[in-house]
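COURSE: Structural Biology Practicum
ASSIGNMENT: Worksheet 4, Part C
STUDENT ID: 0417
INSTRUCTIONS: Below are two proteins. For each, the amino acid sequence is given first, followed by its structure token string. Answer the questions at the end about the second protein only.

PROTEIN I
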Amino acid sequence: MKALVAQALTGTAGLAYTEVPDPEPNSAVIVDVGAAGVCFPDLLLLRGEYQLRLEPPFTPGMEVAGTVRSAPEGSGFTPGQRVSAFTMLGGYAEQVAVAPDNVIPTPDGLDDGEAASLLGNYYTMQFALGRRGALQPGETVLVLGSAGGIGVASIQLAKAMGARVVAMVHRAGAEEFVSSLGADVVLPLTDGWRDAVLDATGGQGVDIVVDPIGGDAFDDAIRVLATEGRLLVIGFAAGGGIPTVKVNRLLLRNVSVVGVGWGEFVRRHPAAQAQVGAELNKLVAGGLRPPPPVRYPLADGVAALDALANGEVRGKLVLEP
């Protein structure tokens, strides 16, 4: 089968589209991949900058959707069944072997690209907003990096939970796309953005900040929190080091900085995957749909990942064999 293989930790330059052996079934579910989700941690893996450092060669790809080719007896899955899966590795390929506990039936009404879009970003943000942030109806959520995959999921899920959403954009021309997701207010992430957020909230600030970018925006993100506000630390896509905070600011203003590590949480608490999945499936049954993903052929994976790294992708990026 064909796969995208990291042959050196030199970013996308180290990727090769090449022939590799088919996966061995053993006790795994073998999935014919219809779409593989692309996420920012994949880029970090390819640079050797992720918390999990792998030595090449390896095949990236943490999330897939497709069709069961074979499944072990008692797994609950059957050949031909449409499924989605958290693979952690191996998803950028025509087939992948997945532990049965990491496979979930694909909700009706979604194609493979849409189903892959619901995995990492939407599971992360359902966990982030629902459990870590304890979002309540009527609260206000500020989303940084709102045109990216995490940002899109944040806007849609926050609205589905009854929140008001203020979305920040730093990409030219992204305002219309972000507005189409249901954001109540869309503002540019430029100098003075903190004052613009305070103006948009009548000076009260926001109850939750979703921060997948870190960097220079972090300090002002804390300053726009209302009393008992929560800043959800999702990641550090902006680069430039990991932000720090003087904890006296948290004490004096009665605000919280909350870490969101979905992958680590579900590793320690495997039952959480089914719980979060059930919550998401209810929203999907009620009409929630991710926006159409940006689709690239698997063979053009290098170009796709470069587009993601350069900030050219709005929403979710998927690779299709």
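PROTEIN II
(use this one for the questions)
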Amino acid sequence: MPSFIEYSAETDFPIQNLPYGVFTSAKNEHKHIGVAIGDWILDLNVISHLFNGPLLKDKQHVFKEQTLNAFMGLTRPHWLEARLTLQSLLDVSNPTLQNDSTLREKAFIKQREAQMHLPADIGDYTDFYSSIHHATNVGIMFRSKENALMPNWKHLPVGYHGRSSSIVISGTPITRPFGQTLPVEGADPHFGPCRLMDFELEVACFVGGPPTQLGERVTARHAEEHIFGFVLMNDWSARDIQKWEYVPLGPFTAKNLGTSISPWVVTVEALTPYIVDNYPQEPPPFDYLRHANNFNFDIKLEVDITTSKSPVPSTVCRSNYRFLYWTVKQQLAQQTITGCNLRPGDLLGSGTISGDTSDSFGSMLELSWKGTKPLRLKNGEERKFLADGDTVILRGYCVNESGRIGFGTCEGKLLPAVPFEDK
């Protein structure tokens, strides 16, 4: 399926990918929906009239919106028709865009000339805890090897509701937070800047499909109709604040300081060639969490860190989405089993994705084993946790005989804590 748009074989965005995003540019300050193709963005606002298939000819307005919510709120057949239309328009054999120089000039913009924005208005955000290796590592650190997993962990996808208002697009700096900590066990708590800042390597799913009603449930067998696509996610975490506050109700201010996501939403259809077996589950889950088909993906994940002293990246983690014990279908089913309603643009985070080797752990907490094994970076610096000025860069890509697609990057720089003033 060659495109008339030229791009490198190593691009994240060939014609087989076509992820969706929202952007502005110098020539247009209004947010437009676009699709990434090579180094370019195809502006769907400009070509909305070309979505003239039987399902989308009366829905062209969704491509003129400033977010993806309306498009996400359609059905999977609509999404499939849009994808086929885009692949046809970009195909080397199709003259519609290729030979219309005026339309091409309006419709394409270089990615380097665009400013990316959150792809959707995110009404609700849930972060899960679905990597068995991550959960086991944390359990060993804070309890014991014999009691690493809590009794409920293999029976349901554990999660918590996060703060959607502090989800930010890749490139947005994150400020080291203030909070309460307990530096010395048994002593009084301390208030001040977080000392143990961490990243968490995650992949998040955007919910799609028509909204469900309060009281309605979606089982894992039907969950795919509500899974629009995926982004990389860094769930920044203040570990010392988290340790003091999380009992008894779980994460709170240690997590609401900022969550970064990548700008391009990679669709389920683009990921289908990279499906792998689901992680074996024992005991078998309850019926509402069961689905027949595999819905796990071979997404290779990497984390780089650059520091204020050196722009040379140090790769500190190589993991894979396939390590998740609970699938996103099961996560969505658990979200709705009590009758919780879904809305297009809701976000479901996977939880930290750690593998079974020490170089595949998806957080500094694990990589440094709670600070007892400092990491040495390429420039000679050591890290137990993140330092001010560090930039964390997440990457994700799939590659096999079908070719290569990717997610781009999810980046964020950690800024120093702002002096606390009670004005």
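ANSWER KEY EXCERPT:
Q1: The chain has nine helices and 26 strands.
Q2: The two ends are 61 Å apart (CA to CA).
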